[in-house]
Design brief:
Layout lengths: L10 E2 L42 H12 L8 E3 H19 L5 H10 L1 H7 L2 H11 L4 H10 L9 E7 L7 E7 L8 H4 L4 H17 L5 H18 L3 H4 L2 H4 L2 E2 L1 H7 L5 H8 L7 E3 L2 H13 L2 H16 L5 H15 L7 H12 L1 H12 L2 H23 L6 H13 L1 E5 L17 H17 L21 E2 L5 E5 L14 H17 L21 H19 L2 E3 L2 E2 L2 H25 L13 H12 L2 E3 L1 H10 L7 H4 L6 H7 L19
Parallel strand pairs: 4-6, 7-9
Antiparallel strand pairs: 1-8, 2-12, 3-4, 5-6, 8-9, 10-11
Length: 673
């Protein structure tokens, strides 16, 4: 089941599940209650820290001093607090489901540890036998294509999304794949040597478990092969650059451009016929991977495939396999304990039957009143964004008009989808966990592929309603806010307006602004990839973005692990814009009246505190290194320290002066939005 990302992939508020914990969402501790009565946790502040020296520590320093990251978690913080609360709500839904229902049967099959111990590795044998029986590279290419919807690995991945030239039509996207470690850096950088060693030991254990002869030599061969893959793969920053990844090919053109892989067989495995137009994102990497495939002995490919089948299946087998896998993945996150089994089971059901669970979730936990109030907030933020565009000093009139048009067409989805998925075709059996997982994977892959060649359904959701996150739909020009995130501390109808605007308002502004960030500027109001800015506007924007990026490039998340501005630029700009747009909307909501002072804090002070406490978090060093390597989002602390020194209102609110550690002279501040 290779993980692939299409060119116009949705841009989420934060990465919900990193590659380090495949097939699971990040865990979270129980929520901490606010002590203010109006929405901000005043007890979290460290008043010994000057706001202008370290606003993250000022807003959340006392909380950090008294908080310990649980042993089974790579990090903890506000998002994880709410995720934990939502997971408990979802657990009540899943455990109450009838045992013969799809939800009940899937959860029961995961929780039946006694049966899994009895079965041992028997469920794995048919898939392994199929790999061992592959007689040539044509058959192997076909099998790699099949792994789109089953356990196994492929050098190439496929997904479906809006065409870059005609965003009303879905086309196929081809992407690089094939690595076991989270990213190319894990193979090529000295800082990840401990993780490589842990991975090598894990590969050897897995090969031993499945009866492979000479597992030590086999592990060497797999690591050497994947290191070659890593050298071919594009870096993360390049993969998000639309000027580089918008590469249309027909099936015949791709086969001619990237010889070495039997593309006909691979597409047969994916169950996709010849295409007149598809988008090959990292095209030079695809060409290199095809050549590597031709140069690699079939025996090595089969060994690699067998390992990845066992690796992906391990969470659904006996305890020995689960523990063996955890001994490796814990090195990626720095955790010392695996998460409780029930939480892993909840994640499986959510990932397999997400909207089926979501229907019950919104009926219980999301009111029509909350939906209506959220829609008003979004409308206010869009109005504020329009004003920012209209008054922007570096944007010319034609670009402003195009931006306003795109903003006006941006669809807003709140809480849950208008139409629910039908899961009636998915067979789930309480006594067949392995089969359930593979059937669910095939069912969900077919659901994605069924859109190929059809009109884009912009009402289709990329997140479940119970997700604590939000996203901008890229080529679909939409913003989506699931019910899961629309509750305290992010959104509370009873909270002070300054807090709601500083919290969920900044999130709304973040998602809106993705339509106008360093990549959103290359997607027009129809969703087509086209640079709709004038050349002069583009140069001015890039100059300001460069200033902004240089600030982030100085941030060191862990010893030697500096942020990569080109990789995180879009999310950093969205944070910056989200703060400013939300603050404008808050001021407008005051209707010309002065904001009240609460507990000695002005409205703007409460706004910025709410924003900072959105991102309060503690993260383990290994988790930080993982995030810097693979994530387009900056670590939580820098989502506070990065944008605020460029916001004039923050200086005024807290009296930040020259000499304060976060102070940036006015002429050196970025001025994007």
């Amino acid at each position: 089941m290779p993980h692939t990302f299409r060119l116009l992939a949705s841009v989420a508020l934060f990465t919900l599940s990193a590659p380090l914990m495949a097939q699971s969402a990040p865990p979270a501790p129980a929520p901490a209650s606010s002590t203010s009565g109006w929405g901000v946790d005043l007890s979290a502040r460290d008043l010994s820290v000057k706001p202008g020296d370290d606003f993250d520590a000022y807003a959340s320093g006392s909380w950090k001093k008294r908080t310990t990251i649980p042993a089974d978690r790579p990090s903890t913080g506000t998002f994880y607090d709410l995720s934990e609360a939502v997971q408990a709500q979802v657990r009540d839904i899943i455990t109450a489901a009838p045992k013969d229902s799809q939800i009940g049967a899937l959860y029961s099959s995961f929780m039946d540890e006694a049966r899994l111990e009895t079965l041992g590795l028997k469920p794995l044998q048919a898939d392994l036998a199929q790999v061992r029986a592959l007689s040539d590279k044509v058959a192997f290419a076909r099998f790699m294509g099949e792994t789109q919807s089953r356990f196994g690995a492929s050098l190439i991945g496929a997904s479906v999304g809006p065409d870059t030239a005609n965003a009303d039509l879905n086309v196929l996207y081809i992407d690089q794949s094939g690595l076991g470690l989270p990213d190319r850096d894990y193979y090529l950088s000295d800082q990840f040597k401990p993780q490589r060693e842990a991975y090598h030991a894990y590969v050897q254990r897995m090969l031993t478990a499945i009866g492979q002869s000479n597992p030590a030599a086999g592990a060497d061969a797999i690591l050497a092969f994947e290191t070659q893959i890593a050298r071919i793969h594009w870096e993360q920053a390049a993969q998000r650059d639309l000027t580089r990844t918008n590469n249309p090919y027909s099936t015949a053109q791709l086969a001619s451009y990237a010889p070495g892989l039997d593309w006909k067989a691979w597409f047969e495995g994916v169950k996709v016929g010849p295409q007149q137009r598809m988008i090959v994102g990292p095209n030079t990497a695809i060409k290199g991977l095809a050549k590597l495939y031709a140069d690699t002995p079939l025996a090595t490919l089969k060994l690699w495939e067998a390992f990845h089948i066992a690796d992906q299946a391990a969470p659904y087998l006996n305890k020995a396999m689960v523990d063996s896998r955890f001994a490796y993945v814990k090195t990626l996150a720095g955790v010392s304990e695996n998460r409780p089994r029930w939480k892993r089971g909840i994640d499986l059901v959510n990932g397999s039957l997400g909207e089926l669970v979501g229907q019950v979730y919104v009926a219980r936990h999301f009111t029509p009143d909350a939906k209506a109030k959220m829609e008003v907030l979004v409308a206010n933020l869009k109005t504020a964004m329009a004003h920012r565009i209209e008054t922007n000093s570096w944007m010319s009139a034609p670009t402003k008009q195009a931006a306003i048009t795109k903003l006006s067409k941006m669809d807003v989805m709140v809480g849950y989808p208008d139409f629910w998925r039908n899961y009636s075709g998915l067979k789930v059996e309480a006594g067949d966990l392995y089969g359930n997982v593979e059937r669910a994977a095939a069912f969900n892959e077919a659901y994605d592929l069924e859109d190929l060649g059809k009109k884009v359904n912009r009402k289709k959701w990329g997140m479940t309603p119970q997700t604590v996150n939000a996203y901008n739909g890229g080529g679909e020009n939409k913003i989506v806010f699931p019910a899961g995130i629309l509750q305290p501390p992010f959104f509370d109808p009873k909270a002070d307006d300054a807090v709601n605007y500083g919290s969920i308002g900044a999130i709304i502004g973040h998602e809106i602004s993705h339509g106008f960030d360093d990549q959103g500027r290359r997607i027009d109001d129809t969703g087509a990839v086209r640079d709709w800015w004038t050349a002069e506007d583009g140069k001015r924007f890039e100059a300001e973005a460069k200033v902004f990026g240089e600030e982030y490039g100085r941030f060191e998340a862990a010893p030697g692990a500096f942020l990569k501005p080109e990789q995180t630029m879009g999310e950093n700009i969205a944070d910056f814009a989200g703060i400013q747009v939300a603050l404008d909307a808050y001021h407008a909501a005051l209707g010309g009246k002065p904001a009240p002072v609460l507990d000695g804090l002005t409205g703007d002070q409460r706004f910025f505190l709410a924003y900072a406490q959105n991102w309060r978090a503690l993260q383990r060093e290994d988790a930080l290194r993982n995030q810097v390597a693979v994530d387009p989002h900056s670590p939580a602390r820098f989502r506070v320290l990065g944008p605020l020194p460029n916001v004039e209102a923050w200086y005024q609110a807290f009296g930040v002066k020259p000499g304060d550690k976060m102070y940036i002279a006015p002429e050196k501040r970025a001025k994007i939005w």
